[in-house]
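I'll show one example:
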Amino acid sequence: MSMSISFKLIDILEFFVVYLILISKNTCSPVDDYETEDQFPVFEFTIPRNDPTYACIKLQTSLFLAVTYPAKIGNEEVLKKVNLSLSDSDISSYTGFCHTDRNQIEIVFLNEWRLEFYFYRTNETYVFNHVVLYYKLDGSLFPYSIHHGAQSEVYDSTFVNSSLYHSYRCNSGVSIDLKEVKIHLLNFKVEAFFDKRPNLPFDEEIVCQSDKEPISTIFKGWLYIIAGMVAFLVIISTLYLYMIHRSHAKKLKREVESDPFEIADIEDNLEESNNYDTIQRTNSSKEKKRLVVRV
């Protein structure tokens, strides 16, 4: 009985440990608010602009850029880096177009910078995989710059792949690598081929993988501590039950050895057994004698 209880406790422990491993690896919970949301302004764009009856693109995002450029200081050429977080005053204007299989939005900022996003429709999905950036490195923001302007373009790098009639959310950010310029679209939410009035809400959202956060490290640590405590308790309880079982067996043995009546019974049984063996041998001898006389 005691050993069966210990085996049940071990089974419970194994189940608990496996459960902890599974949830620590697989359990996931959606993140609603990204920590940078309060740090960067969120811009809202609809294409066509200022049309109250129709929109093919609804876009919400914060814009953060990291620009690496060659600079010449004296006779030495170095690489310098400037981080830009765009504010409302940095956005000059925006425009775009709506086609059956292609939507585009163009954002003008920092006077002469132009950023173009292209969305393409493919059957029941749409993808965002084409970005063009025209930029100018003026002396006020980019001192000692050797170059003063450039164009960067990336194509066929899928940043968004979403079902039609669904929005796509990625608060943690969509990153676009244009070599010298890296664009980070934080607090990002978009729906291309929206085909509704712009004041209507986004459709059901698809959440990017990076917005799904595993159980926190602290919580996992507590789970492992609890698992260790359960394992310790199971080991202690198993040893305790084993010691009780062993003590009980020794006690029964001592009681049997110290009971004079049981010892007497054992001796009587032994004497009866010996007498029976003697009688059997005697009868066997007599039978042999009869056989000899007959012959």
